[in-house]
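note to self: dont lose this again. the chain is below, predicted strucutre after it. 457 aa total, dont forget to put it in the shared folder this time
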Amino acid sequence: MKFLYIKKAAVILTAACMAACFSISVCAEETAAESDENTFTDEVLTYKKVDGGVYISDCNADVSAVNISEVVDGYKVIGVDSNAFAECEKLTEVILPDSVQYLGDAVFMGCTALKKVKIPKGITEIPKQTFALCVELDDLELPDSITTIGEYAFSYCNDLSWFEIPKTVKKISDYAFAYGVIGETLNIPEGIESLGSLSFYYCQGLKTVNFPASLNSLGSLAFLGCADLNEYKVADGNTAYTAENGILYTADMTNLVSYPAGKTEDIYNLPETVQYISDGAFFANTFVSEINLHDSLLTLGTAAFSNCTSLKYMEIPDSVTELPDSLFCDCTSLREVVIPDSVTTIGPYAFLECTLLKSVTISDNVTEIGEHALGFTDDEEGNFHKIDDFTVKANFDSQAKKYAKDNKISIEYLDGNKDMPYIIALVGAGIVAAAVIAVVIVLVVKKRKNDKDYYKK
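---
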């Protein structure tokens, strides 16, 4: 199990691409249903008549290069429909005219041979999924009007090391470069204000990220799964974020935003100013074996230490009240964790797949324990299995005892086995009952003997 909270991301991404593919067939059906009066073709492209001109709605699958004129058959080409060129696997080059002022979603998605594209002047956004799965793309001309890069726009692009984010861009949306290869250094240009959640999800090979002074919003888990990332840098003048020793914090140093997955130090001491550790902050760092927290820390984010496979020991400070979902999920080297009396909640999957963790002591203050939080592993099919030699240590009247009983997990009572008085009482009652039965039997036998002697007289 690789971090339940985020594991769904790949499924979502795939589903999004599948949805786009599905929309291709829907668009094709709609186009076929339209009257000949509203569509026409030049045997290379299909055009749809709209107010003010035509949109490109489809492309011949055998075409390899397209240089589109501003006017076709007397109509001005003013837009490109969603999926218009999608999955044209022989297409290598597309030049759009400056008359085009509208681009739909997923226009070039799945064009696996596409190398060169010219986006016309006036376009302000690269819409979602525009270049998803364009694995050969290496020459993209963008206008200086682009301000937004949409969701999944460059997802699954095999080599974007040549690509420079336009300086006019203000926003990069969720998953924009997910599963892309963007080179060893990512320079976010000055002027960009926000990066979406998971915007650079699983970008392999990325080692250094340079943030500009203009960045004021970083979506959660923006660089999750970037296994080679070892350093963040933040430009002087940024009022939202700062970096120390390659680690990203908020500017006031109260929130640890992201600890690079490729950072190789084995010991990390949390600065005294930090009160919050963000979701997935240490996700999949396989080097750190010791993380020292402190009593100023208030909140641990979901899956904050998930997949830290070298982490061996953790002492939760008294200031923390909740161990959230998937907190230590897949920490396969974790052998000991100290949970203070301040903790009241242990979230689902908090210790899932912690196979070397043989026991956990839980206080009576814990009133909620989520599903498969302790003592479980899972397999690739998502089936859960108990860790046979795992033991919960807790008092008799506790939520931990209920969790252990419900899940048939071994439990060691810290206050002794309070079932014993009941067992002794039952045994005593049994002895008394047996004695009473024995007396009754003796009396019955004696009576029968007396009756027999009477009739003999």
